[in-house]
Please model this.
Amino acid sequence: MLAAVHPTSGPQAGVLEIADVERPAPGPGEVLVRVAVSGVNPTDVKARRRLDGTAPWPDVTPDQDGAGTIEAVGPGVPASRVGQRVWLYHAQWQRRRGTAAQWIALPATQAVALPDGVGLDLGACLGIPYVTAFHALHADGPIAGSRVLVHGGAGSVGYAAIELAKAAGAQVAATVSSDAKAAVARAAGADLVVDYRREDVAARVLDWAPDGVERIVDVDLVHNLAVDAEVIASHGTIVGYVETPGAELPAGALMARNARVRMMLVYTTTPAEQAAATAGITAALGAGAIRPMELHRFPLERIADAHDAVEAGLTGRAIVELP
Model:
């Protein structure tokens, strides 16, 4: 099969090329998926940049997210799943082959059935952003009727968090850095959009939510914690999902509100938490609450361009189409 690959060590480590590699077979508890579309996330780019020569394979195929159709199942998986359209998540986590390949074998739980009418392009955009956003929003209790602040509302996780929070019955404020990104956040359903480069975020949010916000989904704790401490409600939770070393905790303000600050890594959430996320995302899909961001399409032979676009801060989603 054709796949994008890159060496894991040496001078060419992380350099993508297209190669003919062995097609996998599904093992126990696995499914074989014919991939139609691979989704590219910042985490996929970072994985290539952080190679240190310790990977157990000489080369890997990138990308965690994707969508396609199940063609075969391994022992222990019902044969009725053959032919099912699915979205994939965590596909390359601790595995050699990700979704930038014509076929992939992975655990059956990581191939989630797509509701009728939901396209494969949207399916390829769900994994990392939506599982991250769902966990950040829901892991600390229900949010129906709450007020939520999402930093970076035009980013893929931020956009997902706005949609999922609205689907759960919350009101949402989002921060952005431009008029164009404000339009993206509003399209996702944000009730309040604040341009942090031109406006006082804390003042705007507290005018909208005088008692503070119960949940904050934060892409950059280093720059946002001071504001977060001003606007978090009593017993509220601030969730950081991106590694931001050097963040200084405004302990006094947070203590006064009995607020919590916690970090999350989507890959190491528990199986039960991942199951809750995939069920919640599927329900939102079925209800029509999830709409695709602007899609930027790349053929497999241009996957390096897709990764470069994501690394450069592309607004929208980069997807790679498999031949």
Remarks:
- Residues 2-125+292-321 form a domain with the Quinone Oxidoreductase; Chain A, domain 1 fold (CATH 3.90.180.10).
